């Protein structure tokens, strides 16, 4: 029986590629949600005919409702309705492709309803990893990673004993500014930062890749997904993005997952697991690449990666604070209000100013309060010049 799927964030990069997979596999789509892109959401709704669509920004509800008035599709608006879309009785798998910490509540809603979770929204685990993993364990919910790196680790763990794992090797492309030093990055533009050499992604994640913040978030996410310590994760820059990550076992064997840089591959595995299905993607040609290379990350130039490592070392709500600081700083950069290097500076400022008891359990309300504080702290810091 084909899995019924709900896609949260269907108009973004991961969402549109998830629909590509659903189209090719003939998977029924029960719900689609988007933030504001009603034009694309309407097109998706007309093709896939879900039971319901949700526009998170309520200002666009009337327009979307009018656009779909000639269909039987139910139209809703607001974050609470996004959460409701993650809990439809007939849905087996919820793909959370929402960008940013706003994806945390829908993740918890899907878990509460016992849905299998295909998770692309890494901020969910960065900001609220303790909450999410505890509730998933209570509900017996399987979290299937969609990020190519975490999907690679997940695949390399299949058929092996968890206690035999020594460490994981988390690969990073290095982004568009690999090899550059801090002084060279002072004058880069938004357009420069959005020119990723390997992957086609949304603006926020592409900027995160340019600062290596994305790898820092994935570092934290990997700890929660696979129950690791910081010492069990090594980040390696691999410019070709062919080896998506690897697992080293205690006998010295290293098992890696390879493939072309196409997000449809890990997305499809999350939707079909434990089975595999044919895919409309070209095969990997190792001779076509010729050589695969590896480098140590430059933590001085790309400070965001180091900030994330330090945040998870401190524990508690520190990862939430640096994640929210980054979200706010990237938004300012994309709006042309701060320079590229100010992103890492703002994240570092918040990391040093924030304080919490890392040993104390935290609530969803405390996560959201930390989010608000960090965003305000970034605005204050950037206003000071």
Chart the SSEs and their pairings.
Layout: E1 5-8, H1 13-25, E2 29-34, H2 38-48, E3 52-55, H3 61-67, E4 74-77, H4 79-85, E5 93-96, H5 104-112, E6 116-119, H6 123-139, E7 143-145, H7 148-157, E8 165-172, H8 182-185, H9 190-193, H10 203-211, H11 213-226, E9 233-237, E10 243-249, E11 254-258, H12 264-272, H13 286-289, H14 303-314, H15 318-334, H16 341-353, H17 364-383
Helix pairs in contact: 4-5, 5-6, 6-11, 6-15, 10-15, 11-14, 14-15, 14-16, 15-16, 15-17, 16-17
User: Helical proportion?
Assistant: 40-55%
The strand line-up of the biggest sheet is 4-3-2-1-5-6-7
Alpha-carbon Rg, integer = 20 Å
Could you tell me the strand content as a percent range?
5-15%
Q: Major sheet, described briefly? A: 7 strands, parallel
Total helices: the number is 17
As residue ranges, the low-confidence spans are none
- End-to-end distance: 58 Å
Class of secondary structure makeup: alpha/beta
N-to-C series of helices and strands: EHEHEHEHEHEHEHEHHHHEEEHHHHHH
Q: List how many beta strands DSSP finds.
A: 11
Mean pLDDT: 96
- Basic shape: globular
Explain what the structure shows.
This protein is 47% helix and 14% strand. It contains 17 helices and 11 strands. Strand 1 (5-8), helix 1 (13-25) and strand 2 (29-34) form a beta-alpha-beta unit. The longest helix has 20 residues, at 364-383. It starts with a strand and ends with a helix.
List keywords for this structure.
385 residues, alpha/beta, seven-stranded parallel beta sheet, four-stranded mixed beta sheet, 11 strands, 47% helix, globular
């Amino acid at each position: 029986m084909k899995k019924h799927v709900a896609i949260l964030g269907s108009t973004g990069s991961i969402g549109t590629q998830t629909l590509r997979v659903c189209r090719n596999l003939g998977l029924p789509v029960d719900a689609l949600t988007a933030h504001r892109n009603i034009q694309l959401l309407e097109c998706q709704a007309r093709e896939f005919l879900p039971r319901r669509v949700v526009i998170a920004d309520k200002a666009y509800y009337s327009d979307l409702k009018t656009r779909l008035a000639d269909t039987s599709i139910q139209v809703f608006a607001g974050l609470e309705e996004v959460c409701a879309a993650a809990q439809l009785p007939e849905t087996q798998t919820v793909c959370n492709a929402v960008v940013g910490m706003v994806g945390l509540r829908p993740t918890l809603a899907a878990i509460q309803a016992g849905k299998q979770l295909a998770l692309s929204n890494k901020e969910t685990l960065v900001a609220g990893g303790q909450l999410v993993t505890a509730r998933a364990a209570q509900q017996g919910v399987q979290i299937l990673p969609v990020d190519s790196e975490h999907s690679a680790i997940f695949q390399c763990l299949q058929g092996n004993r968890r206690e035999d794992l020594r460490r994981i090797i988390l690969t990073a492309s290095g982004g568009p500014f690999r090899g550059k030093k801090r002084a060279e990055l002072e004058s880069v533009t938004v357009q420069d930062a959005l020119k990723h050499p390997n992957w086609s992604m949304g603006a926020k994640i592409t900027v995160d890749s340019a600062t290596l913040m994305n790898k820092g978030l994935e570092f934290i996410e990997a700890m929660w997904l696979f129950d690791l310590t910081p010492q069990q994760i090594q980040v390696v820059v691999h410019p070709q993005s062919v080896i998506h990550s690897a697992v080293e076992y205690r006998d010295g064997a290293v098992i890696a997952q390879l493939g072309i840089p196409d997000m449809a591959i890990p997305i499809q595995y999350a939707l079909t697991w434990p089975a595999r299905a044919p895919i409309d993607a070209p095969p990997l040609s190792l001779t076509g690449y010729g050589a695969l290379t590896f480098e140590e990350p430059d933590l001085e130039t790309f400070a965001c990666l180091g900030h994330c490592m330090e945040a998870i070392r401190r524990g508690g709500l520190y990862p939430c604070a640096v994640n929210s600081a980054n979200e706010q700083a990237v938004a300012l950069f994309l709006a042309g209000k701060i320079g590229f290097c100010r992103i890492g500076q703002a994240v570092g400022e918040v990391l040093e100013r924030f304080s919490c008891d890392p040993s104390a359990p935290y609530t969803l309300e405390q996560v959201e309060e930390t989010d608000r504080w960090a965003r305000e702290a970034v605005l204050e810091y950037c206003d000071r010049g």
